[in-house]
Every structure is written in C-alpha cells, then in structure tokens.
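URGENT: need a sanity check before tomorrow's submission.

F., can you look over the Capsular biosynthesis protein record below? I want to be sure the sequence and structure line up before it goes out.
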Amino acid sequence: MEETISLKELFAILRKRLWLIISLTVVAAVTAGIISFYFLTPIYQSSTELLVNQSKNDKQIDLNQVQTNLDLINTYNVIIKSPAILGIVIERMDLDLTVDQLNSQITVGSKENSQVVEVTVEDKDPKLAVELSNTIADVFRTEIKDIMNVDNVSILSKAELTENPSPVKPQPILNIAIALVVGLMGGVGLAFLIEYMDNTVKTEQDIEKILGVPVLGSILEMEPEKEMKNRRSQNSMKRGGTFDV
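Structure tokens as predicted:
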C-alpha cells in the first residue's frame, strides 16, 4: 500500500520542528557573518583599458584593419597573461610572486565587437592592484611590437587609486543571505528526515497507518495507587469530611 502525506501533515511536521529550522537558519547566518567580517581577507580590484586600433601612421580608418584588430583581440588576451609579459612585470616591480600566482590574480576580457581590452587585477593591497594593472598594460603595449610586429595598442584609461577603495570580496550581505537560504533548506530537510526516521507509535492514527485497521477503543493510563489515594484524601479535605485509608 503506497504511503501518502497530506499538506496538513507537512505543515504539522514543520510546526513541530520549527525550533530546529529556526536554530539552523540563525546559526548558518551568524557563522557566515562572522567568517565574512573577521576571517576572510578583503580583496580589491583595479582595471586598465587598452585600445586595439589601427597603426598610428594610418590617417584614415580601414574597416578591414578594424576587423583584423577584432580578430587579434583573443590572441592579445592570451599574450597578456603569458610568461612573456608577466615575467617582465614581476621583474620590473620586483614581486615575490611566480608567473602562475600573478596569472591567477588577472582577468582579461573585452566586450563583444569592441576593440577595448580590459585588464583587471585583484589583490589584498588596493595600491598594488592599481600598480599591477597599469604595469601589465604598459609592458604589453611595449612588448607587443616585437612579439606580433604590430603597433596598434594604446592605453585608453589607466587605473587610479581612490581615496577610500571598497573591496570586491568578500560580500558579507550576500554571504549571509546565501547562508540564510541554505540554513533554512537544511533545517526543513533535517526536520523531515527526523520525522521519517522516527517510527515510534504516538497516536491512534499511527496505529491505523501501521496495521491498516481502524482503532475500536483505547485504554486510559491508570494512575499509580499511591497517587489515587493522595487525590482522594485531598478531595475529602476540601469537602470538610474524613477519609479512612
């Protein structure tokens, strides 16, 4: 016989384990907040934009040249993060980093059908992030002349250090919101799991479900003899009479 559960029973289970659901949700949110504010290192971001354009000697815009530049951008994105560029950056800035470590801090991208390449650097030091993005752009602009034998890259905008930079990571509010959802889902799931694993018989309805037969009657729990005598004595005293034990 296939077991089904009604919507009313679902709400009853949730109401029964409400303390567990609320507790898990609060613990998850508080934990996420503490970790975000006190344990995670703030990460700052800085970006420099490069323009891939026709040669400076060309006075007129060549549409074919523009299309060629667009096709080259994907190649440029790879070259910017290559050891040929990052190795020079590390040497110039005297960084205690490997090429792979510096590579992991850099993101290079461009908008669709755009000749603008954006070099984004993330670092725990906002000043270093600005210096890195500007240096990478400058080294690439210089070295691409020898690597690709072209002179079609210029710096469109340099990164600048603001007075009070804001970190891009972590995002405490977002982390707390995610923790609230995860904690709520975990609490609800655990509540149903506990209810599913609990196979004890508590009510007449439980007996009907297990045996598949209706309950004809029930036997009340008998009070211990000592308690019955005490109750009779108390009732007798209230009426002002006597009672022999």
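My own read: The beta strands are 44-52, 106-110, 116-123, 153-157. The chain has nine helices and four strands. If you see anything odd, call me.
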